[in-house]
Amino acid sequence: MAAWPRSRNWGSLTIKPAAATGDFVAKESASLEIKKEEVKAKLDNKDVVFLDVREPREFEGKTPYGESRGGHLAPAKHLFFKDLLDKDGRLLARTDIEKILVSKGVTRDKEVVSYCTGGIRAAWVTTVLNDMGYKARNYAGSMWEWSAQPAAEFPLQKN
């Protein structure tokens, strides 16, 4: 890629104020997010599929991003979020994603809870799944929150 041309005068940027004030108000949605207490209560629920969307090394118990403890939720299936992307970083075809999801036990009649380290990768997977018609929720606290809790009450499994 060529360097940005330094010899050109691109002019100045003028930022204009918004023409009118909007009325959008951001708020949490319980249909898209799940809290640690509810995650804990659903660990044995066969109608819920937990997806750990972190790197394989994280799923196996490594803590490269400052988690207090390593491992994964016992019922979780591993699905690295990048496995939903092609070699160019584009989202796979819907049919290819559905094949991957079926192999993890994800069906449209089950609730899906995605988690990662801090909720970012899981939020992306949750968005993709909801767009495809699945009932998916993001555990935003993810491993940073879960691993900081007492191990006896918030267990993790290592493979």
List the helices and strands and how they pair.
Elements: H1 36-42, E1 48-52, H2 56-60, E2 77-78, H3 94-103, E3 111-115, H4 120-131, E4 135-138, H5 142-146
Parallel strand pairs: 1-2, 1-3, 3-4
- Strand coverage percent: 5-15%
Distance between the termini: 43 Å
What about the largest sheet?
4 strands, parallel
Total number of beta strands: 4
Q: What's the Cα radius of gyration? A: 20 Å
Number of helices: 5
Low-pLDDT runs: none
- Structural class by sheet pairing and helices: alpha/beta
Reported CATH architecture of one domain: 3-Layer(aba) Sandwich
Overall pLDDT: 92
Q: How do the SSEs run, as a string of H and E?
A: HEHEHEHEH
Under CATH, the topology of one domain can be stated as Oxidized Rhodanese, domain 1
Q: Write the CATH homologous superfamily of one domain.
A: Rhodanese-like domain
Please give a structural write-up:
The chain is 25% helix and 10% strand. With 159 residues, the protein is α/β, with parallel strands linked by helices. It has a 4-stranded parallel β-sheet, with helices on one face. Helix 4 links the parallel strand 3 and strand 4. The protein is globular, with a radius of gyration of 20 Å. The mean pLDDT is 92.
